[in-house]
Amino acid sequence: VARRLALALAAAIALLAGARAARCEVSIALSLDRGDATLADSVVLSVSVSGAHGDAARPTIQGLEDFLVRPAGTSTRVQIVNGKYSAGTDFTYVLQPKKAGSFRVGPAELTVDGATYRSGVVTLAVGQPATSPDGERGPVSLVAALAPARLYVEQQAIYTLRLYRTVNIADVSVAPPEVDGVTLAKLGDAREYQGTCQGRPCQVVEVRYLVTPQRAGSFTLPPTRLELTVFAPQNRPRRGIFDDPFFGGMAAGRPLTLTTAAQPLLALPVPQEGRPADYGGLVGSFTLEAGLEPQALKAGESATLTATIRGRGNAKRLPELKLPAIDGLKIYADQPLLKDEADAEGVVVSKTVKWALVPEREGRYAIPPLEMSFFDAAAGRFRTLKTAAAALSVSPGSGGRASLAPVGSAGPAGAGAPAAKKAIIPLGDDILPIHAAGGAAGALSLPGGLAFWLLLLGPPAAFALALGGTLVRKRSGNLTAVLDVRRAAAALTGTCRRPGVTAGELLPALQEYLSRRLSLPGGALTAGEAAAQLRSRGGDAAAVAELQGIWRRLEDAIYAGKGRAAFDAGETLARLVERIERGLR
Amino acid sequence: VRRLPTLLAALCVGVPLWAAAQQDAGVRQQADRAYREGRYQAAYDGYQQELRTGGPAGELLYNLGNAAWRLNQPGRAILYYERARLLLPRDADLAYNLNHVRGQLRDLTPEATDFSDMAFSWLGSLTLAEVFWFFAAANLLFWSHLALRLVTRAEWTYSLLFLLLALWLLAGACFGIKWRQVSGDDRAVILQPEVGVLAGPDARDTVLFKLHEGTVVRRVRSEDAWSLIRLPDGKRGWLRSDAVAAIAP
Question: What ipTM was predicted for this assembly?
Answer without folding.
Answer: 0.79
